[in-house]
Amino acid sequence: MAETTERYLLDVDNISIAFGGLKAVDHFSVKIRKNELYGLIGPNGAGKTTVFNLLTGVYKPDAGSIVLDGDNITGKTTVEINHAGIARTFQNIRLFSNLSVLDNVKVGLHEHYKYSLVEGILHLVKYRSTENAMDERAMEILKVFELDGYADFKASQLPYGKQRKLEIARALATDPKLLLLDEPAAGMNPQETVELMDTIRFVRDKFDMTILLIEHDMRLVSGICDELTVLNFGQVLCQGETKEVLNNPEVIKAYLGD
Amino acid sequence: MSYRSKTFKSNMITYGLVAVFYIICEAMLKSGHMSSLMQGLLVPLCYYMVLAVSLNLVVGISGELSLGHAGFMCIGAFSSAVFASTAGKGMADVPELIIALIIGAAFAALFGFLIGIPVLRLRGDYLAIATLAFGEIIKNVINAVYLGVDSHGMHVSLKDVKSLHLEDGGQVIIKGAQGIGKLPRNATFTLGIILVFLTLFIVLNLVNSRQGRAIMAARDNRIAAESVGLSVSRYKMTAFVISAALAGMAGVLYSHNLANLQATSKNFGYNQSILILVFVVLGGIGNMRGSLIAAFLLTLLPEKLRFLSNYRMLIYAVVLIAMMIVNSSPKIVAWRKVMAEKYFKRGKAGIDEPEAAAAAEHVPTVDEAASEITADLAAAEKEAARIDEHEADNNAEKED
């Protein structure tokens, strides 16, 4: 058993959650290898975002276990799970809208560059050196997403596509092991979607990242995902390599109807 | 980096304003151009500025509408007054004031922490109402407390002096509703200005630190803040406790400016908290310089309107409403921006205006708070009337 868990970065085993009588997620399992780009798809209301909320501790699963890189993170809080190594973006963008673009990323760096409250208030030497290091690192990350030119903008002033990118940048700043992207292409035009695909691939390679993404855009999914899980009515409909899954008649039925 | 140098410049302007205010007042004092009425207002101006900036830390930076700020001021005032009339008696002014400030800030911070534990679990309106209740509780409890000291130490009672059971020679310090008497009254304008600087220094530096960023991130989006690993409740508490400590210091200044300290609804009640909130909202939520200016103007205004006698509070209310419209009506803000660019050609205006605009759209609670304020204007103005009568009384006392 121990060997099999170590081969996977994320090992989700039979998690379930019910809201009242509704089984939103029912015996969901998934195993994701390191450096893999994994897709989670399914019709509206299939429970995809609920899975993300379970993985990030927004909800606690009624049953089952979640193991990240050998750590059992089942039932931990969102904050603890982030410290354990999962960062995410949101379907409806959640930026710190009154902070600058740079500060949004610096909030992501918060746990990795520290000084005490007193040092912060008195602006001691350590404050200056740490803040400079943070600025440098944050600008590096922004550069990856071609946002460095917008560093001084308020986050809410960015155009939509760039806000999505900034959310990914902020998540990456927390230095996660696993990145969860919730519908990264939502609301993007085809051109932006193609760019986003490149960015996601680039992030995977550059940061040596493992990525789990929820997506509706079939072109994006088939273009970049190594493996897929299809969710329908809270249950796994089909799991496996992208091509096979997309050709599965049951999947086609779930998406297109009879 | 341009971004940081801009903040630095803006902070320096704020400090500069306070310095200029101090120099002008000192010059007027020295040359005898200041009326005794104005002289009596100098220390109140300082503690209102400290209160406004410290409340802005909670309302603007942390994004929680707190209505109990006067309660923390009350704790600072009474803890330091107890010190002044016991251990601090006969001490030289400077060490006595320093210790009193530390005691006042520490007690207010402690109560801020204790009250913060239940209150910060609430959000929005519920938090506002809970802080309001705690503020009233503090005032009313202190109003009922009898405190005495003898060779056995401190005695506390909520009934009367007799039930303190003091031995002969014991001294009663707090006499219930009569409060504390014979205070040193050694607060000076200079001390007040030092406190204003200290408050600004702490708050402005906090805002630009990693802790300040975390506080603002939690304000902007709690769920996102948790998702990047910030312990939201911890940073909300940090802001709340620091704010309470600073309000406690304002209370120390208040108690050291009086001969007699009583906890009444005039000075530490709900209306006082609302008045401080009025400073914050009118100055622009999250805008420290605005808080200073609003505290200054709105403390001075009722005094300057004295010649209007009965119409005074009417005019005061009209000015309040006008200020609110000028400050936050989107059209007027845009118009101001255009005018500023036309006449100042970027430069100076560039620093001020985006801030004002940012302040106007800053936190979602702005509008809510503003509408609430409108409802409370009547209460606030009544209170302001009472406050300045109160202060006029103090002045009269001083002149005696």
Your description of this structure?
The complex is a heterodimer of chains A (258) and B (400). Chain A has two domains: 1-85 and 176-258, P-loop containing nucleotide triphosphate hydrolases (Rossmann fold); 100-174, no CATH class. Chain A is 41% helix and 24% strand. Mean pLDDT of chain A is 91; it is low at 1-5. In chain A, a hairpin with a 2-residue loop joins β4 and β5. Chain A has helices at 2-7, 48-55, 78-84, 101-108, 117-122, 125-144, 160-173, 190-206, 218-224, 242-247, 249-256; strands at residues 8-19, 22-33, 37-41, 63-68, 71-72, 86-88, 178-182, 210-214, 227-232, 235-241. By secondary structure, chain B is mostly helical. Chain B has one domain (2-328, 362-399). Helix content of chain B is 73%, strand content 4%. Chain B has 15 helices and three strands. Chain B has a three-stranded antiparallel β-sheet with strand order 2-1-3, with no helix packed on it. In chain B, α2 packs across α10, α7 packs across α9 (232-255) and α10 packs across α15. The longest helix of chain B has 35 residues, at 365-399. Residues 347-376, 378-385 and 391-400 of chain B have low confidence and may be disordered. The chains are: A alpha/beta (258), B mainly alpha (400).
Average pLDDT confidence of chain A is 91
Q: In whole angstroms, how far apart are the ends of chain A?
A: 41 Å
The largest pleated sheet of chain A is described as: 6 strands, mixed
- Number of helices in the DSSP assignment of chain A: 11
Category from helices, strands and their pairing of chain B: mainly alpha
| Global outline of chain B | globular
Question: What is the number of helices of chain B?
Answer: 15
Count of the separate structural domains of chain B: 1
Q: How is the CATH topology of the largest domain in chain A named?
A: Rossmann fold
Query: Span between N and C termini of chain B?
Result: 56 Å
Helix fraction bin of chain B: over 70%
Low-confidence stretches of chain B: 347-376, 378-385, 391-400
